[in-house]
Specification:
One of its GO terms (cellular component) is plasma membrane. It is found in: Cell membrane. It holds the Pfam family CobS. By secondary structure, the chain is mostly helical. 69% of the residues lie in helices and 0% in strands. It has one domain. Helix 2 runs antiparallel to helix 7, helix 4 runs antiparallel to helix 5 and helix 7 runs antiparallel to helix 10.
């Protein structure tokens, strides 16, 4: 998950202890995960210490994309156009951070019969190969196809829920596996606690349920469950091939979880 503005290593074993500190943590992570830069100075907490802010960062990204979707639909724009512009808005908001990780991971893990060292070497190459291009193309097509059927209000709710849940599940691989590189983005995230991971995923699930329950009870239950399942299987599959996780593979897991969420939502929400 290559970024032009990587966080400097933050060394802190303490979690935020007040609302103001949690707000500061949210701004720090929003400054990293999006193109919106808050004046926060050097980060006080590594990601592992502030995992509960992740679903809120995701919901904010989903809100930006969802508003674009709802506005286009409100002016009688076709669903496919609203969906395409919403997907583009999310990419611009995040500077394609997770899409970059998806492409690099697909290039490294797509070919058969490679040693882990060779896979990691390919992932570090900034050039996109066949697997990366195909992964990005399919991802965009699937997202647009899932969103195109929704009304403006439904699309807004689905996008906020999908982005919140797909960020929340990033907590799992941080706990379950070790970073492959000792000095990469994955290592800088730190090692979370069981409680921190459960809280982050729980907040994401609750946010998604609240946003979707009015659109369909089964969607509100099954879409978050699908995102969690994909993150679990994806993190395990990746770790078996490269021995852990990297910043790129975290981005790929986020994208896979988002796609799973949107597919289930599209199947269980009528419009």
């Amino acid at each position: 998950m290559t970024s032009p503005n990587e966080f400097p290593e933050a060394i802190s074993a303490n979690q935020p202890a007040s609302f103001d500190e949690w707000l500061q943590a949210f701004k720090e992570q929003a400054s990293f995960f999006t193109g919106v830069k808050f004046d926060v100075g050097l980060p006080r907490w590594p990601l592992a210490d502030v995992l509960p802010v992740l679903p809120f960062v995701g919901a904010a990204v989903g809100l930006a994309a969802g508003l674009v979707f709802a506005i286009v639909r409100a002016v009688a724009g076709p669903g496919w156009l609203a969906a395409a512009l919403a997907v583009g808005a999310a990419v611009l908001t995040t500077r394609a951070l997770h899409e970059d990780g998806l492409a690099d991971t697909a290039d490294g893990l797509g070919p058969h019969g490679l040693e882990p060292e060779r896979r990691l070497e390919i992932m570090r190459d900034s050039r996109n190969g066949t697997f990366g291009v195909l992964a990005l193309a399919l991802s965009v097509i699937i997202k647009i196809a899932c969103l195109a059927q929704f009304s403006g209000g439904t699309g807004l709710a689905v996008l906020m829920a999908a982005h919140a849940m797909s960020r929340a599940v990033l907590a799992y691989p941080l706990l379950a596996y070790a970073p492959v590189h000792g000095n990469g983005l994955g290592a800088q995230a730190g090692k979370p606690t069981d409680n921190g991971v459960a809280l982050a995923i729980g907040i994401g699930g609750v946010l998604a349920f609240i946003l979707l329950v009015g659109k369909g009870f089964f969607a509100a239950i099954l879409a978050p469950a699908a995102a969690i399942a994909v993150a679990w299987f994806g993190a395990r599959w990746i770790a078996e091939r490269i021995g852990g996780y990297t910043g790129d593979t975290l981005g790929a897991i986020e994208q896979a979880a988002e796609l799973a969420f949107l597919v289930v939502a599209a199947l269980f929400i009528a419009h």
